[in-house]
UniProtKB/TrEMBL annotation:
Database matches in PANTHER family: EKC/KEOPS COMPLEX SUBUNIT PCC1 FAMILY MEMBER, EKC_KEOPS COMPLEX SUBUNIT LAGE3
Name recorded for this polypeptide: CTAG/Pcc1 family like protein
Signal sequence, renumbered to the chain: none
Transmembrane intervals: none
Source taxon at top rank: Eukaryota
Native source species: Aduncisulcus paluster
Family: Belongs to the CTAG/PCC1 family.
Record-linked InterPro entries: CTAG/Pcc1
Length: 92
């Protein structure tokens, strides 16, 4: 399955990039998280996130225009992932 982009942006303007790899109990749980998190839109055009599933892992690529925006986006993404993991674990 292709990554789900949250925002269209020119890649050249987003120079700060990081990848996050979250282990999940199963590929099904990783897909649930991917689908739940992909609907949350970034509030600025200075960042974008791509969610993908690689086996039992949820992978997230975060791109931003500068380090400050990258930190903000990663922090927000990790908060959302933490909540999503708690919900998936509660219902599994």
């Amino acid at each position: 399955m292709d990554p789900i982009p949250q925002k269209k942006q020119s890649v050249s303007s987003l120079k700060c990039i990081t990848d996050i790899r979250i282990p999940c109990h199963s590929e099904f749980h990783a897909r649930c998280l991917q689908q739940a998190l992909s609907v949350e839109k970034e509030l600025t055009h200075q960042t974008e996130r791509f969610f993908n599933v690689d086996g039992n892992y949820l992978t997230v690529e975060v791109r931003a225009s500068d380090a400050r925006m990258l930190r903000k986006s990663v922090t927000s993404t990790m908060d959302s992932i933490h909540l999503g993991v708690q919900i998936v674990e509660a219902f599994s």
